[in-house]
Write a structure and sequence with these properties.
There is one protein chain. By secondary structure, the protein is an alpha+beta fold. The chain has one domain: Pantoate--beta-alanine Ligase, Chain: A,domain 2 (2-Layer Sandwich), CATH 3.30.1300. The chain has a three-stranded antiparallel β-sheet with strand order 1-2-3. Strand 1 and strand 2 form a beta hairpin. The longest helix has 46 residues. The protein is rod-shaped, with a radius of gyration of 25 Å.
Amino acid sequence: MRKLFSKDKDGQSIIEFAVLLPIMLMVLFGITEFGRAIMVKNVLHTAAREGARLAVVSDSTSAHGRVLEVLNAANVTPTEVSILYMVPARKVEVTIKTDFDVLSGGILDPFMGTFELKGKTVMRLEG
């Protein structure tokens, strides 16, 4: 006896794969870009902390050089590096900004594109 609704379903899995593949790729690229953004943010905070520590015990010229050294080691190009001495409060503030470019080959550009990341550290002056 033949089954009533037994139709040939050979192409069904190919169509399902074709429909779900772009969604799965967007999720994969999104996870990758989010991880890269977290890494760059961590590098910015590390460079700001290194610069602030050197600015506290030394001068702003060597602190600026140390910030650039840390950023160059991680291949991050800053758009702005500022070292601000707050004399009445006896603090140093180091702020670093960079533009984060999404490298997903145009897949996530409409959603993410380019955006700014910032790292900032404030330390008390010694002495």
